[in-house]
Design brief:
eight-stranded parallel β-sheet; 31% helix; globular
Length: 220
């Protein structure tokens, strides 16, 4: 299990009028991944960006594009996002009729596979697939909008996932997304996360000092 803390800034909080520049700035500031939230207005009550935007952003950086698909039915869109330049494709078990099939589809395009759990989704939904994936994304807010408040009730779930992964000696990253700031990042990391997604904190704290905010999230 990778214990190095990685920071995956969410571009949902970036300035969309200059996304390419924002991603370049995140790269220079030390971001490990670039977190891209894709929402369809159906699986979650909001609409964000599609594969065409990711395709345009792909030449800007070689950083890992950590793409979180909050869309259903997800299988219809995996090809488009894989070919647009996603490196990790994360989906929700509730967004597919067959989790195994979705994993195989992502693998077909030689992409890393992530599975995400909403705050109320049970670990049992993904437990049988942990040996087939690269990343578990635990949502610490209800998916759909940025800027929500962190839900500490997800911490026991995080610890349980970490315990299962360690017991099975799996090389699966544990990512947490939703309302993470300098105050709660420590408890998230102590509970087992090694990839921290943050939007508002990275882009808005300390007068938007991206490097400082990334380092604080990593080291706090």
């Amino acid at each position: 299990m990778d214990s190095i803390i990685k920071i995956s800034p969410s571009i949902l909080s970036a300035n969309f009028s200059k996304l390419g520049d924002e991603i370049l700035s995140l790269e220079k500031a030390g971001a490990d991944y670039i977190h891209i939230d894709v929402m369809d207005g159906h699986f979650v009550p909001n609409i964000t960006i599609g594969p065409e935007v990711i395709k345009r952003l792909r030449p800007v950086t070689k950083k890992t594009f950590d793409v979180h698909l909050m869309i259903a039915p997800v299988n219809n869109f995996i090809k488009d996002f894989a070919e647009s330049g996603a490196d990790i494709i994360t989906f929700h078990p509730e967004a597919t009729d067959n989790v195994d099939e979705t994993i195989k589809l992502i693998r077909k395009y030689n992409k890393k596979v992530g599975i995400s759990l909403k705050p109320k989704s049970k670990i049992s939904l993904i437990e049988n697939y942990l040996d087939k994936i690269d990343l578990v994304l635990i949502m610490s807010v209800e998916p759909g909008f940025g800027g929500q408040k962190f839900m500490p009730e997800i911490l026991p779930k995080l610890k349980e996932i970490k315990k299962i992964i360690n017991e099975r000696k799996l090389n699966v990253e544990i990512e947490v997304d939703g309302g993470i700031n300098f105050q709660n990042s420590k408890s998230v990391k102590e509970s087992g996360a090694n990839v921290i997604v943050s939007g508002s904190t990275i882009f808005k704290e300390n007068s938007g000092d991206l490097k400082k905010n990334i380092e604080l999230l990593r080291s706090n």
